[in-house]
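Hello, quick one for you while I still have it in my head. I'm working through a protein record and want to make sense of it properly. Would you mind checking whether the tokens look sensible for this chain? I owe you a coffee for this, so here goes:
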Amino acid sequence: MVEAKDVVVVGGGFAGLSAGVALAERGFRVAVLESKPQLGGRAYSFVQEDSGDQVDNGQHVLMGCYHETLDFLERIGSRDKLFFHPDLEIRMLDRNGSEAVLKTSRMPGPLHMSGALLRYRHLGIRERVGLMVGGMKLLAMLRRDRATLEGLTVSQLMNRLKQGERACQCFWYPLSIATLNDEPEVSSAALLAEVLKRAFFSRRADSAFVYSRVGLSELYCRAAADFIEKRDGVVAAHCNVEALEFADGAVARVRLRDGRKLGASNFVLAVAPHQMLRLLPESAAADPFFARAAKLESSPIVCVHAWFDREVTDAAFAGFIGTTTQWMFNKRRIFARHGERHPGYLSFVISGARKLVDRPNDELLDIVLGDLKAMIPGARGARIVKALVLKEKHATMAPKPDTFRLRPSANTPVRNLFLAGDWIQTGLPATIESAVMSGRAAARALEARHAEKTLAVAA
């Protein structure tokens, strides 16, 4: 028998699991259904059998400003699996052979960032001062003229802020591509401004880099499932939802591909936009609230994992300037536990990889290895033992300026249906923090509607 506090959550990534945990904590009985063989959605890990290493499907870095994510991990008992680097410290390597470090000072925020900018040796003194002035103007626009900011791309914003080519190449664009996962010419200036405000121009602790010392699946998937199951819930992978079935203008049940049906009083869809539209009945999907999500585009990421016969760098993390490859992560320096069969294990990220994602894996590997050898001379004599190329063609929502009017809220016109996902309206680009924020927003909205219904019945 379906009870008033029964909830079905479709999707077992960060959004779905954070919604499930928040609802279970509020006394709801939750069933989380994930179609893939493992939980995690687009943020999961697996064990590479030859090396024994845990491999993330994409490299994900948290920051101190990820308040919702850090609280979620605290509640499920996983915060101790994180490593906090208290100071922002990014080693930036240029193709011309020069190296500089973006490192915050010990001053309180947001003054801590001024030290990082003024000591950034890839730029001349005038350019460094220009970065600070540009940052202050950007924050002023975010406070006073957000409407204008929402209509601009990142490259258009840089022109308005009078940022030169070198400042864009060495500072603004690497940060933009890393956080928004698309080219500056098409990415939303308002989304970048929101990220920079939270991560770099707020409290000093918010600028901390936070690494998971374990694979993503070990970080949150099992812990979140245990949390839900201990509170009379169910978490099931390999459980493919085929459709939502409606009755009397509300969702009555989900129909699984194997023919089974599961009823509940409330439902949360924590899936990608195209999956949401596919699950809805045609009449509901035609509602403008849902239909506009079809106009949201996606942006790809390519992640290359490479194992070497030696460790080629002592840096845990580095950015590349002037190359196709944008970021390098040294997993031997990050992971707490790992296989020891191959001393060197690096992962590389190419964000916004529209022009590359359909190229052969061997070609992508050659590009990454060429960039590595150009940037880190110590890698030139290293022998590659094994490599793995992972492509996420629909990794994130494309962060175009028009996404602000296309992204829906957690509340929907259907009285017992709620949305979650990094792509719904959170004010942030499609990040882990956005996903967790959305899941918790869906839980709050559901609880509020449940309370309204309870009061109405009592009255």
In short: Residues 432-458 form the longest helix (27 residues).
